[in-house]
Amino acid sequence: MKAVLNGKVLAEAPKDDLVHIDGAWYFPPEAVHSQEIEQSDTQYTCSWRGAAQYYQTNDGEQKDVAWAYPNMPDSAKERVGKDVSQYVAFDRAVELIED
Length: 99
Prior knowledge:
- The protein has 1 helix and 9 strands, in the order E-E-E-E-E-E-E-H-E-E.
- With 99 residues, it is mostly beta strands.
- The protein has a single domain, classed as Metal Binding Protein, Guanine Nucleotide Exchange Factor, Chain A, CATH 2.170.150.40.
């Protein structure tokens, strides 16, 4: 699966490597193209996943196109059934394309 924004591939991985949580597909960190996104200053905390890290495009034009939960609590890992700390999900503005 690919995460594409304005013709740029932000992440790419086999669908079997992704995790689906609450309507969003989470890509493993090694699948994310770090040359395309960087951390943003947006603050958010989920009631069960903990503090989120948001990302923007490296050119700064698209804010908060992705997010991750870098320090997911053990209770969230148990709920998901896997440690997906650092996995990255993308905003609906980002097109997800199945290979």
